[in-house]
Every structure is written in structure tokens, then in C-alpha cells.
Amino acid sequence: MIVPVTDVPVPGAVLADFDAYMRAVDAVFAADHARYMGWVPRLDVDAYGALAYAIECYEREHLEEVLADRPPRPPFPMPDDAPIARRRQAWGATAVPGTGVAEWDEWFYVPDVGVGPLRFGMTVEEVVEAAAGMLGRTGVGECVRGHAAFSPTWWIEVRRHEPAPSPPAVTAYVSRDAGLFCVAVDAVHGPRVAHDQLALVGRDREELESDAIAYAEARGVYLRYSLEGFAGPDDSGIVLCGQTVGQVLRSRPLFMVTREGANTEWHSIPSEEYPGSGHSTA
Questions:
Q1: pTM, whole model, 2 decimals?
Q2: Among 142-146, 172-176, 210-214, 223-227, the least confident range
């Protein structure tokens, strides 16, 4: 179905052209701004998720056009004289210095729906197809079975198209019975992902805690601390793990839903992502 973004989109809809893409981006940004201001967005969760998915699909299919024509705009109004660093923060692009992460490289996270082009419940084949077009090369392997109640589980590592080998930018975990239930984003090579304007990827613990406290105070909400001391939003679908980058521990977020045989997202964490599992980047 081709949708010109004049009505509420439906799951699986695609954008007709670049103008429709830009209207979809405007609608998503307006919803983000409404939440940021404490207002009720005009888009409900289903419509937001459908638009976000359509945006991701369009960018995957028309990447050169998007990079050439997409204006560098934040998701809520900001003065023209705002510092560049503040504009990058508004995008949720908190790149680790020296990694060369492009400003367009951010993914949307929708609780209970998915992150970027990945939707919870996808099969291994669907994850490979969706992620390969966005990032690059993929590899699949079987996970260690952490509990008798869990069905067989596979990891899918997605690496960027780069001349030299690089660590996975994203690692997705898919079980036979639940489908995709966990997406781990690399602190250095992964896309930038934010929750309600709070950037979550590749953050220093103290820096993230400071921003998270300000975020919680501004919205009157609670925070959660991970086992490795990272402060984050009180969203059961976000688990902040740590990844050693040089001599610094950076945030490596997991975006999750509860898998079969588990009671919570915490119980669903793949053993490959447990604290102390050895994720590091020189």
C-alpha cells in the first residue's frame, strides 16, 4: 500500500515519494516534540510506529536521495543560532569522539514494537533482510541455551559496510517461539538511539547519569539503574549494559520484550549480554 501521509498510516505502508517521506519525518518529530513538552501527541503509538517503520524503509531504499536532500533538522524547534553541539544532542547523536558516526544514523525506538527497521517477533530471516539493507553484512549463530524453559535461540550480528573489519554495530537475538526479543546496540559502531530525547548509546556513566537526572526532574518520572551503574529511563524494555571502549565504560543498550519462559525483560537477557560477558572495543 502506498500512503501519501495524509491519513493515519497502517502497518506495512510505504511512502510514495520524498515529499511523503519528509511529511512523515515532520509528523514523527512533532510527536517527539509533544512528548518532550509534556503534551499528548496527535499520533497514537500504533500510528507513530507505522510512520517510524515507513521512514526506516524509505531510507533503506532511497539512501542516496535522503543523504543528499534531507535537511539537518532537530526533532523539535530550535533557534538558528543554537550551538552545533546542542543541535547534535537534539538529534540524539552522542557519537563517541573519533568514530565518525554520521548525523543521519539514528534509529527510532518504540516500546513493545521495535527499534530501527527491526520489529519484535521477527524471524531470523526477517531480521537478516531488514538489517542488511540498513547497515551491511550479517552473520548468524546459535546461542548458548541459558534455561530449559527457553526455546532454541540465535544471534544475528550486523556489521557496517566498511573497508576494514569492524565489530557488530547491532546484535539481534531471536528465539524459535518468541521471535526477535532483544536488540543490542554497540557503543561505538551502533546507530544512535534515544528515548524521549535522552541519548542512550555510547554514553559515559557520569555524563548519562547527569542527563538522566535532568530528564527525570523535567518530566516528573523515575529512573532505573542497571547492574553496571548506568542511569536510564524507567522503561522495562530498555536495559543498559556496559561496554569497555579503550579505558572507559560506555553504555550498550538492550531494547527488549519478554521472551517465552521468562517473567520480565531482565530474565530474558541473553547470556551473551550478561554483565562481564566481555564486550569491549579497543
A1: 0.63
A2: 142-146
Q: Nearest to residue 153, comparing CAs of 273, 280, 264? A: 273
**Length of the chain (residues):** 282
Q: Which residues of 138-160 are buried (b: 16+ CB within 10 A; e: fewer)?
A: beeeebeebeeebeebbbbbbbb
Domain ranges within the chain, ordered by starting residue? 1-71, 96-272
Strand partners, 199: 194
Closest CA to 184 of 89, 118, 86: 118
31 neighbors 41 (Cβ within 8 angstroms) = yes
> At 159, which amino acid appears?
R
**What span, in angstroms and rounded, lies between the C-alpha atoms of 35 and 8?**
19
CB-based contacts of 201, cutoff 8 Å, min separation 6: 94, 185, 186, 187, 190, 191, 192, 193, 251, 252, 253
Bridge-based pairing of strands 231-233 and 223-225 is: antiparallel
- The residue assigned the cell 510514495 is 16
* pLDDT given for residue 194 in this prediction: 87
